[in-house]
Each structure stands twice: as structure tokens, then as C-alpha cells.
Amino acid sequence: MYSSRKTKRRPAGAFTLKLIAYGIVFAGAVVMLLPFYFMFVFATHANADILSVPPPYWFGDHLLENLKQLMAMRPNFWKSIGWSLSIAAATTALNLFFCALAGYAFAMLDFRYRETLFGLILATLLLPSFVSMIPTILLMQQIGWINSSKALIIPGACGALGIFMMRQYISSVLPRDLVDAARMDACGEFDIFLRVVLPLIGPALGTLALITFIGSYNNFVGALLVLRDQEVYTLPLVLRSLQGTNGVTWGALSIGAAIAVLPLLALFVVYSRRLIDGLTAGAVKG
Amino acid sequence: MTPLSLKKIGKSYDGRNYVIRDLNLEIRAGEFMVFVGPSGCGKTTLLRMIAGLEEISEGEVAFGDSVVNELDPGERGAAMVFQSYALYPHMTVAENLGFGLKMSGVAKAERERAVNDVAKVLQIDHMLSSKPKSLSGGQRQRVAIGRAIVRNPKVFLFDEPLSNLDAALRVQMRIELARLHKQLGTTMIYVTHDQVEAMTLGQRIAVFNRGRIEQVGTPLELYERPENRFVAQFIGSPKMNVLAASGNEAGRLKIHSAGTIPVPIAQPASSAIAAIGIRPEDVVLHEAGTPDTLAASVTMIEHLGDATVLYLEIDGADQPVTAKLHGSNKQYSPGDTVGLACVDGKMHCFNAEGAAIR
Fold first, then answer.
1. Class of A78-241 per CATH?
2. Cα–Cα distance between B133 and B25 in angstroms, integer?
3. pLDDT tens per residue, range A97-119
4. d(CA B170, CA B159)
5. Is the complex ipTM more than 0.90?
6. How far apart are CA B261 and CA B334, in angstroms?
7. How far off is chain A from B343, nearest CA to CA, in Å?
8. Fewest Cβ atoms closer than 10 Å to its Cβ: which of A145, A277, B56, B206?
9. What is the pTM of this model?
10. Nearest chain B Cα distance for residue A3, angstroms
């Protein structure tokens, strides 16, 4: 039967473009995921297998031996995981509190030189982190924080990126009338922050928490600068210390790295949606 | 019931340009005072200064005998209802209502009793456990009003609270607000740019323009005896027709080139007349060529049901003259020529500065 309705057909060019786009994304994903895959694969093989040509492409049965070897080489491995997690948790909690507080002030309070101050804070994002390395070491030595967790927690307790994120989010989601209503309800500024602002900025807090936690947990250079004794090494330093001058036990290193990455993977799987939402919040008018 | 006194109030954000300057106003105890004026005239800024949400650059705000300039908003004893409702989205209706009391340190049992009482008065007691997002606009507005009432304030401040409601709900809420004022007897200050709200709610109205009060009076005073052209044209809908007048020879005024009319007020004040004002509802139309009328032609007609609005062109005037006719038997068509006059005693006269002459 003849139908006057025509079927819409996509032009062949559009399909090819889409195919190319997907191909590029797929290639990018493979490049990023392959090291992860091989980390897990090598964690289940002996050193000799790993160093053979070609290397193993599939999982082996040497997992427990590698784990035992790791424990023999670094008996404080589990302690360093706990140490890293506690430092990351403390840094994250402080970072959320201070960045949200500063973001609220920059978004909602009127004070002199507000824009100038905010500009200065943003300008610190332009400085490479290496610039502050030597002053950091000297300062930590002066105040006696070498080998102390404070040397990692306190400098990470507030950052320009967090303040920027919070300020943008609060400006976009929090009506000024709401803050004024709380002032009329006899709320002081800190009460407004605690009782009105904080409960309403959950998505941004979640995103910042994720970014801060991952950054702190993976912080290698910072820890390298201020932690000298193996007793207080965080996980990145413990893993690095497995790479000695007398050769590397790749199986033990891989299982250590695989265990180290598990908490972050779990966090990412649970909160990836929130991370994306939080990063794009305020980008478009809702 | 608390009176309010505003003395020499000034507001400047940069120390040079003033959005409000040298403003004086006495608001009586228990009065329903309306601030009305065009956008950007300073009415909301003044309300926020009274609330304590905006710093007072100059002058003195007193609640009763106490100057409150230095007090925080929560310490002044004022409650405010915002245009956007400003309900805390993460709290239930009950928590929203009781939040102010909680912050003031009122005990839980007393707080719950007060919240329940107010919820019953405003008929929102069935939604106390709901969150604001599940309420309609009208219900949210009731909660916002309830939040103000529950604190038992000395003064209520309303910042265009009905602007976000549809026309029917606005009328209903207007009646409820008037009833609430009668019931509570508390001093209320209400900001709006809607003159119907101002005229129907206000016991007195302050008309604002460019950071100044042009006139304060009862709705009828403002309508019948405006002190200047701004008030005359701001109050009333459609707005008053103002026509330039010249001459005043032999007791007659020349209105553009549309004709002459007898001087409507006694000499010698009449010599200063620079313009006349006729409210659309006071326009009378006669046959073209009738003595003491202005020659005009109908350009457009709007039928409102209860009235007909005619737009008339008169020679030499750059704005059309509006006539609002109630129950007229005569049917007009665009292009008709008529003689335009004013109901006896209803014509307003203004001098060159825009001040009313009587």
C-alpha cells in the first residue's frame, strides 16, 4: 500500500562522522584503561612471567604469592592504607568546610575588595605547584611538622579550586531572599551557613569531596616532601619505595597498586554521576 | 501596635549618588501603609532598610521610641514576606514556620503550639509535614505569611508578595491580607508597583518617585487631590490625561490647537496653569462643535464589557486622550469626530513645575 509519509533517512556523511567520533572516543578509552587492566593482570603473575616477551595478557594464579611477597617487603602496607585514608578523610572534611564557608562569603556577603580578593585567590590556580615546594619544606621544618600528618592535612584544608566551585554553585542555586529570610528569622551568618546554605549545596559538596579525597589520597609529591620515615609513609610513598635500585618486583608492586586503587574505584562507581552533575552545575541556566 | 518613624533617611551605595535622600515619613501604630511607585524608585530599598537588610546611609529609623539603625534584622521585631516566598526548601512547612522561633530560643512545646495555631488560622494545618516544593504558589505564600505571623512581630513588611500569583489568586490573597490586618491590628508596610493592590489594601499610600515620596495620603485623597502630575498620572487606570494649556485670555485656556475651554479654577491662581488633567472616567463626549469642548476624533476603541475605552486624537497633542465610558448608549466608531469636555469640578490644573493648582 502506498504511503505518502516518507521515511527520514540520515545522510551517509553524518553516519561516517559519528563512526569516526565513536572510534576516537573508543581509542581514548582503550589508551586510558589498558594500564589499569595490565596492573590487575600483572598482580596475578610472577615477576619472570611479567618480564617475558610478550608479557601475559590474561590473569594468572600468582596472586596470593605476590601478596605475601608485598607483606614481607612492606609489613606496614595495611597501616599505610589506613594512614592515607585518614589523611584524605581529614583533608576532605576540612576542605569542604572552609571552601564552602569562603564560597558562601564570596557569593552572598558584600564586603570591600571582595572581587579583588576573589581574583587573587583564583590567580593562585595559575601557579605551578612546584613553585611552592621549597618554601613548603622550609616552613614545615621551621614549625616542626616534618613526618607529621598535619603537614599534609593543613595545607590541603582550603584551595582556590574548591572556593571557586562553591562560590559558583552557591551563586547559581541559592536565592538571596533565602539568606535574607534567615536573617529576618534571627539567624547569625554562621547559623545561616550551617542551617540554610550547607543543606542546599549537597551536590557541590559531593563533587568537591570526591575531587579532594582523590587528590589527597594520591598525593605523592607533597608526601615525599614532608614524610621522611618509612613508619609514616602514605600509600603512594610505600608503592614508590618498592621500586629499588636492585630491580623491581613487579608482581608485588602491581598487587599493591591494585589494592590502593580499589577505594577510589568504589568511590567513583558510586559517585560518578554526582561528580559530573556537580562539575557542570551552574553552567547553564536551569 | 507600634508606630514607625523615618527621619531624613538617605541611601547611597557609593557615597556620592543617592537612591533615597532626605526622606521623612511617620507610619501610625496599626496602620496598613503601602509604598507604591515605578520600578527603581527606591520603595523596596526603603523597606529593606526598615527590615535591617540594607544599611542606612543617613537618618534614623525608629520602631516606637527605639531607634533601630544599629540592630540586626532579627532583633528589630519585624517580619518580612518576600516576593519569592523564600521558604527553606529542605525544611517542612512546620519547620519553616517554626524556624524563626527556634532561632530566637523559644522552647519546643511552645514553638509547636504557635506553629499549629498559625497553621489553623491560615488553613495550612493539613500540610505541616510537606516540603515547599509540593505546594502550589498560593499555599507557599500562605506559609510565607504564616512564618511572619508566628513570630508575633511589631511590624509586618511585605515586599510585593502577590506578584508571583495568578490574577484570581491575587484577588483572593488580597482579601485575606486585608482580613489578616483587621484581625491582628499590627502595623504593616506593603510594597507594590500595582496601584490596584495599593488602592484596595492601603489605609494610606506613599507614592515614590526617584527616591522621594511625592505624596502620602489615603487612596481617595491621592485619586481626587493629587499634589502633582506624577501622582495624578500614577494613580488611576487608565492614567490621567494631561494636556498642555496656554493663554488664559478672557478667562479661557487654549488646549493645544484643539480649542479653548473656560478656566476651571478661580483667579488669580489660574494665571500659572501650564497643563490640565482629566481622568479618563471624567471625560464627557459631546457632538462635534459643541461650545466649550475640544475637537477630537476617535482613533481606537476597546470594549471591556463593563466599560468602553476610547482613544481620541486632538489637534496638536502628541499623546492620545483616553476616555473611559460607562453605560454609554452611543456607539462610536474610529474616525468619528466629537467635542471633548470634563465632568464639572473634576478637572485638575498643574503649573509649569507639575505641582497641582487649586
1. mainly alpha
2. 39
3. 999 999 999 999 989 999 999 99
4. 14
5. no
6. 25
7. 47
8. A277
9. 0.81
10. 47
